[in-house]
Write a structure and sequence with these properties.
The protein has 648 residues and is of the alpha/beta class. The protein has 20 helices and 31 strands. Bound molecules: 5'-O-[(S)-ethoxy(hydroxy)phosphoryl]adenosine.
């Protein structure tokens, strides 16, 4: 983390092809936004979006922090992603799909557009879905998933995609919170060589309190047998071909919601992050150009799941808005062997590859020499997202996957930000392994102390964004107060509340930004964001549990693993309990939230006001010697007792 550490400069070949070719060009763009904030965004919005009707104001701050962008403008995001490409790129491949069993589909922009129009008509004509209605999508990674999302965008319905790893309870909570009218799902997908069933989860979710759901639309994927509810359930393939491939796009306001995506916070239930139309698609498009340097013949692959924001912005909306070819893969990276992804890069001649540090660490561990067995020479740019990347993983990725010639863009962003915020530019920024480097043009972060003052170099602070940006979340669905209290009540600049990210970070001597991780009670497990409060609430529902505290413990592959301290109501045999507790978590949230460690303790360390000292519990989980002051605890002896319980 000091200037003496090795810095990686972009190679001549990358600079030659790059849209932004030097730090001077980056600084020029950055300064343009600094000098004339609205003028900067105005120029880009006019240039990049096919407006049905122009906006009359770039930014309306009168109800801040409820910002409005490109006020009065009309557009349709599906048109931006499909129709406008058809003349020039109708026969170009939009989606290159590969299923886990090895089945392949290449779908052109024209074919995708036809399918989206048909699906849009289906939603309108058969299921009475109208502008503003919510549609929950619970699907495997198959092309019908982007089709469903774009069909919603075409008719102005608000999609809410739920990751296929979530349980029936989680799915139900999201359906109820969004009062969705329709669920789109599939029989199931393929994962690790096994059928991964989804329809049964939907059936289970809909058993209870989902009165708003009128119909379930089901894509046939893995051909496993599923239960059927007559009148409610409909096969997609039986209906889709009756529909016309012409569906007039709904005229949408810049600020109409495009989608909801639920994510975890430090307290309470997951929040429905609400994104807009114009600002979101503008930033998705710009970051594809700036950060991935997408050019006409590139083949681009983001290995995320569309159930998370990375998949929304960087498998679907961004790639299609810029008219590139986006690769989509259904399964896990290690099936049938740890060379699967590298083989796909070779087969499709992928130019940009974007993945998560947890996947890089896993593939490094299970197959360090695998990349060398494939021809990865098509690769030009590598990306990472989701958590801080440790320099070891960065260097393995750089040397073994990128053959030392591909810049790595370490992109820092969040569900709430809609798109990249901090990232190197591949043809400009000298990178340091582990740092997301600098903000993109138009983005104004500041690392602050608790009093709102900018911290000095090497001093840890809170990462805040001091000006609004077009792709920011607009609100939390149905809970505007929580939007304000969650994001705009912690930090101020010049008396004005600013966006607080929940992440800690540091500037080094060269002004590079290093993310140190969440400062709130949100865990990042294998790149999945999970609130400790949610896990605690699930564990607390086990009949034998009196009290519980959950913390993250550093993990070499997952980044963090889940560590639960449980106080029991009475003395029980622990063996069956542990399985029972894990089961409750799987049922209420999903398998990704199962605790790795459960330790039974006689009590929890609390302050006299009853607050659980999680910092202390994190140290204990790591096996550290406790040096913190524990005299403020209600019962200072509890720490020793907890440490004793860990020995058993
Ligand atoms: C973390 C994922 C360090 C961070 C796009 C953030 C990162 C949270 C990085 C958001 C990165 C994401 N370096 N940390 N490059 N990217 N994070 O909402 O803690 O699933 O707040 O969005 O992931 O997770 P989310």
């Amino acid at each position: 983390m000091s200037p003496s550490e090795k810095v990686y400069n972009p190679s001549k070949e990358i600079v030659k092809r790059a849209l932004i070719k030097s730090m001077d060009e980056y600084h020029k763009l950055y300064k343009e936004a600094e000098d004339d904030f609205e003028g900067f965004w105005d120029r880009l919005a006019k240039d990049k979006i096919d407006w049905i009707k122009p906006y009359h104001k770039v930014l309306d701050e009168t109800s801040a922090p409820f910002y409005k962008w490109f006020v009065g403008g009309k557009l349709n995001v599906s048109t931006q992603c499909l129709d406008r490409h058809l003349d020039k790129r109708g026969d170009k491949t939009a989606i290159l799909f590969e299923g886990e069993p090895g089945d392949k589909r290449a779908i052109t922009y024209r074919e995708l557009s036809n399918e989206v129009n048909k699906a849009a008509n289906l939603l309108k004509n058969q299921f009475n879905i109208k502008k503003g209605d919510r549609v929950v999508i619970y699907m495997p990674m198959i092309p019908e998933l982007p089709v469903a999302m774009l069909a919603c965008a075409r008719i102005g319905a608000i999609h809410s995609v739920v990751f296929g790893g979530f349980s029936a309870d989680s799915l139900r909570d999201r359906i109820i919170d969004a009062t969705a009218k329709l669920v789109i799902t599939a029989d199931g997908g393929h994962r690790r060589g096994q059928p991964n069933m989804l329809k049964p989860v939907v059936d289970e979710a809909l058993k209870d309190s989902c009165e708003s759901i009128e119909n379930v639309l089901i894509v046939k994927r893995n051909k496993e047998k599923v239960n059927w509810v007559d009148g409610r359930d409909h096969w997609y393939h039986e209906l889709i071909n009756d529909e016309s491939n012409v569906c007039e796009p709904e005229v949408m306001d810049s600020e109409d919601p495009l989608y909801l995506l639920y994510t975890s916070g430090s307290t309470g239930k997951p929040k429905g992050i609400q994104h807009s139309q114009a600002g979101y698609i503008l930033w998705a498009q710009l970051t594809m150009e700036w950060v991935f340097d997408i050019q006409e013949d590139d083949i681009y692959w983001c290995s995320a799941d569309i159930g998370w924001v990375t998949g929304h912005t960087y498998i679907l909306y961004g790639p299609l808005a810029v008219g590139t070819t986006t690769v989509m893969y259904e399964g896990v990276p290690v099936h049938p062997d740890p060379g699967r992804w590298w083989k796909m890069i070779e087969d499709y001649k992928v130019n940009q590859f974007y993945t998560a540090p947890t996947a890089i660490r896993l593939l490094h561990k299970v197959g360090p020499d695998e990349p060398g067995k494939y021809d990865l020479s098509s690769l030009k740019i590598l990306g990472t997202v989701g958590e801080p990347i440790n320099p070891d993983a960065w260097i393995w990725y750089h040397e073994n996957v990128g053959n030392k010639k591909c810049p790595i863009v370490d992109t820092w962003w969040q569900t709430e930000t809609g798109g990249h915020m901090l990232s190197p530019l591949p043809g400009a920024t000298p990178t340091k392994p582990g740092s997301a480097t600098f903000p993109l043009p138009g983005i104004f972060p500041e690392i602050m102390d608790e009093n709102g003052n900018k911290v000095s170099a090497n001093e840890k602070g809170l990462l805040c964004i001091v000006k609004p940006w077009p792709s920011m979340l607009r609100t939390i669905w149905g809970d505007p107060d929580r939007y304000v209290s969650n994001y705009f009540s912690r930090a101020k600049k010049n008396g004005k509340p600013v966006y607080f990210t929940g992440d800690g970070s540091i500037y080094d001597e060269d002004g590079y930004i290093w993310i140190t991780g969440r400062v709130d009670d949100v865990l990042n497990v294998s790149g999945h964001r999970i609130g400790t409060a949610e896990i605690e609430s699930a564990i607390g529902h086990h009949p034998d549990v009196a009290e519980v505290a959950v913390v993250g413990k550093p993990d070499a592959i997952k980044g963090e693993s889940i560590f639960a301290y449980v106080v029991l109501k009475t003395d029980h045999p622990k063996e069956t309990l542990t399985a029972g507790i894990k089961e409750v978590v799987t049922k209420e949230i999903g398998p990704m939230a199962r605790p790795e460690n459960i330790t039974y303790v006689p009590g929890l360390p609390k302050t006299r006001s009853g607050k659980i000292m999680r910092r202390l519990l994190r140290s204990v989980a790591k096996g550290e010697t406790i040096t913190q002051d524990i005299s403020t605890l209600e019962d200072p002896t509890i720490v020793g007792k907890i440490q004793d319980s860990m020995k058993h």
